[in-house]
Design a protein that fits this description.
Bound molecules: adenosine-5'-diphosphate
Radius of gyration: 34 Å
Number of helices: 21
Number of strands: 23
Structural class: alpha+beta
Shape: elongated
Helix content: 25-40%
Oligomer: single chain
């Protein structure tokens, strides 16, 4: 017999193993849920492959998951007759992190130390076995293959693989339980665990127990499994015990049961089973649609975002069933990408059993289902917002930016999504809805104003808001990268335009005073502006008098159709070749500094000082909108010179 092959775990696996064991020690019992759920998935996978190749099934038994313990040997077995794994699949699935988002996960791990939170987002899976087992043995034979393989590991650095014997396809996992974990050797505690975590698993879970053989010649013998009693009665006979199995899960499709028969705990456990989330869901909606299409749905909003929420290849979508038969994982056609965090089940009465992704992509049924998924989810979120402000805001913090994508991807949902929007604002602590804003609008105020930028601090201090503040108009602070597109998708709210405080054509109502001031200032500044334009020509398309500034001397505004500076920066981070939008430099004609600069310009039009100060003002405007200045050293030098002069004057004036 050849020696077993030894393989090292991928470095990431060792870390995940370590994480699992260390962060879940207080919740060890979930290991059974994870292994049973893997077994159930393996059966589903086989059933689906068998739709196109029924030779895979062979003449095997009915699908089932078997669980039993051997107390003397301290072993617990979990067995399925599902897809099984080949030699190479064992290495890949149990020796590497096969998840598409693994890279992201490891990055998240590097950045964050909150291991418990991360493991929850990641899902624990097979490695949970090591919560209770000192070593784990997996014997597996892939459907359609003759050879079986034994995988063994004690969760250190490596595992071994060697040929094994197995009757028929499937996988048997043997856990060698550690000293502290004897409870998992008892029939009754295993039974309780399965009822708690895996009742809804759709394949029968057969739990084994050593019981007296059903006696053939002694029909009166009741099924009493009291060993000592047996021993006493039949001294000359061996107690004839054998492993007998009984089905211990209900296996009923939770979503097909009526709502008032289902407890919150059952809903929560089902969610954990579906999502592998360690934490329960934030809320859920359970419905039956009986229109032209018949289908049921049970959709959950998770409590926390998964680590790969913004990852392009992240799994998304809900599980699709047809008449209670599992069809596919992650049916993304049924859920728009802006609700990609939703977990759950859709069970259609109308789709064919062999429905393919292609068929789903442009099917009529898909459209109807998708519409209802959107409606039911948004209704549930609106209900949450109404009933439980705190919980809703936690939801919004986690998923708000994703929901906002819906404003431009599904414009016909704008009204519904609009109700859910929450923003920071100049007028209230915390977050406000658009309706809240509208209620607070001042008399005469015609539009809803917002400002875009990196952070609340950056936006709140921005000079662009000065005129709005002077009028006590509220400004919404939009600090998500998606906000600009989202707002464009929304267009108006309650018949009021949404207006950016940073946009060139900002008209604050019909503000005649400001208009007049601006007109009055114009001729006096023409010469200065021409010089400034000359100095800044490369970066600025126009220098003009501002109507929006009251305290600051200058600011940069976005020309019509141009990109906000903040977004342009974000996009240039991805793509350096993005052209820069030349912006408009607005100058506050009422500001003493500008008035002085004008006088100076009248005296010495082309002087270096005028040029230099123009550049300083421009740099200042860049800083205020959060953009980097081109030559920070030059700005610092100039500031030093100016401060030096100012300090000398201050000393001269001092008594
Ligand atoms: P996950 O189930 O989240 O993908 P796991 O770590 O639990 O992650 O399992 C990794 C992979 O190993 C699974 O995706 C599956 O391909 C395979 N696997 C686990 N258990 C079984 C089983 N009982 N039968 C067949 N394949 C299995």
């Amino acid at each position: 017999m050849t020696a077993p092959e030894t393989h090292s775990f991928q470095a990431e696996v060792s870390r995940v193993l370590h994480l699992v064991v260390n962060s879940l020690y207080s919740n060890k019992e979930i290991f059974l849920r994870e292994l049973v759920s893997n077994a159930s998935d393996a059966i589903d996978r086989l059933r689906i492959s068998a739709l196109t190749d029924d030779s895979l099934l062979g003449d095997g038994d009915e699908f089932a998951i078997r669980v039993w313990a051997d107390a003397d040997a301290r072993k617990l077995f979990i067995e399925d007759n599902g897809s099984g794994m080949t030699h190479d699949e064992l290495i890949k699935n149990l020796g590497t992190i096969a998840h598409s988002g693994s890279q992201k996960f490891m990055q998240a791990l590097e950045q964050k130390n909150d291991e418990a939170a991360l493991i929850g987002q990641f899902g624990v899976g097979f490695y949970a076995a090591f919560l209770v087992a000192d070593s784990v043995e997996v014997v597996s034979r892939a459907a359609g293959h003759e050879d079986a393989w034994r995988w063994v590991s004690d969760a250190q650095e490596s595992f071994t693989l060697e040929p094994a014997e197995r009757d028929g396809r499937g996988t048997t996992i043997t856990l060698h339980l550690g000293e502290d974990h004897s409870e998992y050797l008892s029939f009754w505690s295993l039974r309780a665990l399965i009822a708690k975590y895996s009742d809804y698993v759709r394949h029968p879970i057969l739990l084994g127990d050593m019981r007296p053989m059903p006696a053939e010649d002694d029909a009166s013998d009741d099924d009493e499994d009291d060993d000592s009693d047996d021993d006493a009665k039949t001294e000359d006979e061996e107690p004839r015990l054998s492993l007998q199995f009984e089905t211990v899960n209900q296996g009923s499709a939770l979503w097909q049961r009526s709502k008032d028969e289902i407890t919150d705990e059952e809903y929560t456990e089902f969610y954990k089973h579906l999502s592998h989330d360690f934490e329960g869901p934030r809320c859920w909606t359970h419905f039956r649609i009986e229109g032209k299409q018949l289908f049921s749905g049970l959709l959950y909003v998770p409590s926390r975002p998964p680590f790969d929420l913004y990852h392009r290849d992240s799994k998304r979508g809900v599980r699709l069933f047809v008449n209670r038969v599992f069809i596919m994982e992650d049916a993304e056609e049924l859920v728009p990408s802006w609700l990609r965090f939703i977990k759950g089940v859709i069970d259609s009465d109308d789709l064919p059993l062999n429905v393919s992704r292609e068929l789903l992509q442009d099917g009529k049924v898909t459209k109807v289902i998708r519409k209802q998924v959107i409606k039911k989810t948004l209704d549930e979120l609106a209900r949450l917002a109404e009933d439980d402000d705190e919980s809703y805001l936690a939801f919004w913090k986690a998923f708000g930016p994703v929901v906002k994508e819906g404003l431009y991807l599904d414009r016909d949902q704008a009204k519904r999504i609009g109700k859910l929007l929450r923003y920071r604002s100049s007028a209230v602590d915390g977050l406000t809805s658009l309706d809240g804003y509208v209620e607070r609008m001042k008399e005469g105020q015609e539009a809803i104003y917002y400002a875009l930028g990196e952070s609340e601090t950056a936006v709140a201090g921005s000079p662009h808001l000065e005129a709005l503040k002077a009028k006590s108009y509220e400004v919404l602070y939009m600090t998500d990268p998606v906000d600009e597109w989202a707002i464009e998708g929304l267009g108006t709210w309650d018949d009021k335009d949404l207006v950016s405080a940073m946009q060139a054509n900002l008209e604050i109502d019909s503000d005649e005073d400001a208009d007049e001031d601006a007109e009055k200032d114009k001729p006096a500044y023409e010469g200065l502006f021409e010089t400034m334009q000359g100095v800044l020509d490369e970066n600025v398309r126009e220098v003009r008098v501002s109507k929006r500034l009251t305290d600051s001397p200058v600011c940069l505004v976005v020309p019509e159709g141009g990109q906000h500076a903040y977004l342009e920066r974000l996009m240039r981070n991805h793509d350096q070749s993005m052209p820069k939008t030349k912006r408009i430099l607005e100058v506050n004609g009422q500001h003493p500094l500008i008035a002085n600069l004008r006088k100076l310009h009248d005296n010495e039009p082309g002087s270096d000082r005028v040029k230099e100060w123009t550049e300083i003002l421009y740099d200042q405007a860049l800083l205020l909108e959060g953009s980097p200045v081109e030559d920070p050293a030059r700005l610092a030098r100039r500031m030093t010179t100016l401060l030096q002069a100012a300090s000398a004057t201050a000393l001269e004036e001092a008594p």
